[in-house]
Amino acid sequence: MDDRTGQRIVPETARRPENRYGNRPTMKDVAARAGVGLKTVSRVVNGEPGVTPDTERRVQEAIDALGFRRNDSARVLRKGRTASIGLVLEDLADPFYGPLSRAVEEVARAHGALLINGSSAEDPDREQELVLALCARRVDGLVVIPAGDDHRYLEPEIKAGVATVFVDRPAGKIDADVVLSDSYGGARDGVTHLISHGHRRIGFIGDMPRIHTAVERLRGYRAAMEDAGIPVEDAWMSLGVTDPVRVRRAAEEMLTGPSPVTAIFAGNNRVTVTVVRVLAEQSRRIALVGFDDFELADLLQPGVTVVAQDAATLGRTAADRLFRQLDGTLIAPERIELPTRLITRGSGELPPSD
Amino acid sequence: MDDRTGQRIVPETARRPENRYGNRPTMKDVAARAGVGLKTVSRVVNGEPGVTPDTERRVQEAIDALGFRRNDSARVLRKGRTASIGLVLEDLADPFYGPLSRAVEEVARAHGALLINGSSAEDPDREQELVLALCARRVDGLVVIPAGDDHRYLEPEIKAGVATVFVDRPAGKIDADVVLSDSYGGARDGVTHLISHGHRRIGFIGDMPRIHTAVERLRGYRAAMEDAGIPVEDAWMSLGVTDPVRVRRAAEEMLTGPSPVTAIFAGNNRVTVTVVRVLAEQSRRIALVGFDDFELADLLQPGVTVVAQDAATLGRTAADRLFRQLDGTLIAPERIELPTRLITRGSGELPPSD
């Protein structure tokens, strides 16, 4: 995980021997299994009249048995329906997803497709409900920022040809394309930066422990501390919801405990903006590095040093892969990890206050 | 437009004599016109087999003639399909829409419905394409932040029972529910505030002149100046795209012209954040009031005085009305205008620098 000189492409181990899209059942397969003609299958699939209830049932049974799902761009274009892709976010109000969504939308538009968004509100059940609702509405592909950690519910859709790319966090329990930032390396860089400015008592405030990026960033924090030979105290680490009340309490406890921190590493932009508020109220100067850049970070006093992700490139890369899946030029799922970038602006270069 | 003591509800003049939803054609109407039974209409509408091509054509002609569209929540629930509503934004990356989207989503969720978003990217054609694509995907209702100024294309959908509420900006050329902020009054308040602190040469930088809110806010600026007996110079007013390059040039021209401004009123949050940057580079102190609150405005030096809209209440009010349309308890379109709130933080209370 050390050579972060640029974008890395790591082929995922294929758990299924067959090509993910190559074995997609066709209408011909359905017709053969049901013992009917292709036109009959077409009528049933497209909801056209002229099929007896008995025949329809036989076709439907074959469709279910084979996992057939009508879905190909050519058909869509023939029917005059607008192609569309879905984007499942975790929070519509998190500014991190703004540039990511817009980048996905721009790629979709370049391919003549509409983008439809929805939010899981960080709820795995809601994510599944939304993903399946989008599939039922015949999106051609999905870009998913997953809330859950088990995506086996998506396998029938993927097998049936719905292109799928995960972004920001990996898929759980299925092979799927994933595009993410190097959370581990970025956090390690940010904490190492604080250590290089003389800090030893450094706090970490992150998102909920079931979220992949939160765990990876905590791992990066621990690695930087271990590299520097600094034992980490439990009181310096806090994972949980990113609402201002929880983050404020976590920051205040670290700042006032028996072994108070002189610097804080904030695990994402939602955490950082609350920590900025808390630090503005302190009498001593506390150093801060935040994961994620945010608007106006450079105009605060001091400017906020951040580990920046490139949200637009995450979105664009994911969407590009989606359309490459759809046009058949991408076969095996891969994991693409984008590097982060440390931007120094003042808050991360403050010396320890004691 | 003067009595802004709270939320105002103004019944829109009904241009059509009939109730917007009361005359919605039913399957019975279609059956009568086509001379077939109700079951046959149901088969055609639901794409079920057992109808001859000739009969199907007759039913389809009746559907087209009457403008019938199957769409009612009861049917949706019977079929087990998840109810959904669509939200059409103008820019996925504008933070103003974050709390608005989340509020719409929360109301949708409380009604057991999914929210599907899309962005028009401020393009009227794109708006229409997206709206119709969402209708084709059987959303039960639409919350629209319009990019265009002619929404007659929506009339067949509305007649067919798609609930529709416009938010932030009114619909064009149709009667429809609209929920918006008092842009005129808010801008007038903000500019009056600058005048009360001694400013007479005040600049206005707003969004594109075809956008309703931009025009209303400019009107508020002009009214405040006229109330104070201050003649407005053309060089003090600039409308256009809100990208940083255009806004920066506009601000710099006002600050260096023959009659340089001592204060700027920024027409929305996208404009404000660029003006904040420009003002931070000036040698003299320029006062600033911005329309829209934004994150960290209070932590800048000086804090940024704003005319705040309540984006969450805009979204919640619009979504509430949408579901009241769907459950039949709302009949006539109304225009609801929410008051704005001046929040003083320092930048708007600076005296003129000359």
TrEMBL record, chains A, B:
Task: Give the span(s) annotated as Disordered.
Answer: 1-25
List the biased-composition ranges (Basic and acidic residues).
13-25
- UniProt GO MF annotations: DNA binding
Q: Which UniProt keywords apply?
A: DNA-binding, Transcription, Transcription regulation
- Specify one Pfam family: LacI
**HTH lacI-type domain segment(s):** 25-79
Protein's name in the database: LacI family DNA-binding transcriptional regulator
Q: Which organism is it from?
A: Streptomyces prunicolor
